[in-house]
């Protein structure tokens, strides 16, 4: 039995709310159970110096946790003067995931900066961030298209992410903190809406796991991401439909 009472292949309650920031070209508040992340996508007409003159754009991401996103307050990394290795790793993962489904040439010389701010954490903050960031990015590109900043929509697919793990010897989907903190193995899967793999991060926390167990986790991830993809599509359709 999982601490939450969920079945092994059951996601936490998932919601995606758009238009939560009036200033950002694209925004989405994503909730995976008690993990809540605010994702905003901002358009910048300047590209990084190393891309100037190449006729290509760029998508990058920043990630951070608010001081009281967890059970005990943590100091802001800005106050410490540097980002932690974990923060840098996660924001690079988000950026890679978004660029994998973006035609950078179709963007022209434009940059989109996606910010993922964790308001409340209960496990799976990176997977929730990627799932919500895609929606925010899609809406930012919608804005750029309507404004005449781009001629075609640069997205080539959708992207979502989910965690899976071995908990009490069983493969389970979408770990919350209670499971993640005591899992025998955990993995994060980033897949496109068409089922292609962008990234897999997997670690044995107790004893090594088998290829068969890895396949079980991947099967769970594929099914979970397929459901997330439907939620993303429904959310974007609603956001794009005139009131």
UniProtKB/TrEMBL annotation:
List the InterPro entries hit by this protein, alphabetically.
ExoRNase_PH_dom1 (IPR001247), ExoRNase_PH_dom2 (IPR015847), ExoRNase_PH_dom2_sf (IPR036345), PNPase/RNase_PH_dom_sf (IPR027408), Ribosomal_Su5_D2-typ_SF (IPR020568), RNase_PH (IPR050080), RNase_PH_bac-type (IPR002381), RNase_PH_CS (IPR018336)
Q: So what does this one do? A: Phosphorolytic 3'-5' exoribonuclease that plays an important role in tRNA 3'-end maturation. Removes nucleotide residues following the 3'-CCA terminus of tRNAs; can also add nucleotides to the ends of RNA molecules by using nucleoside diphosphates as substrates, but this may not be physiologically important. Probably plays a role in initiation of 16S rRNA degradation (leading to ribosome degradation) during starvation.
Q: Which Gene3D superfamilies does the entry link to? A: GHMP Kinase, N-terminal domain
Which GO MF terms are attached to this record?
3'-5'-RNA exonuclease activity; tRNA binding; tRNA nucleotidyltransferase activity
The Exoribonuclease phosphorolytic domain, residue ranges:
10-140, 158-223
Q: Which reaction does it catalyse?
A: tRNA(n+1) + phosphate = tRNA(n) + a ribonucleoside 5'-diphosphate
Give the keywords, sorted. Answer: Nucleotidyltransferase, RNA-binding, rRNA processing, Transferase, tRNA processing, tRNA-binding
Species per Swiss-Prot/TrEMBL record: Novispirillum itersonii (Aquaspirillum itersonii)
**SUPFAM superfamilies assigned to the protein according to its UniProt record, in alphabetical order:** Ribonuclease PH domain 2-like, Ribosomal protein S5 domain 2-like
Q: Name one GO biological process term.
A: tRNA processing
Q: Specify the protein name.
A: Ribonuclease PH
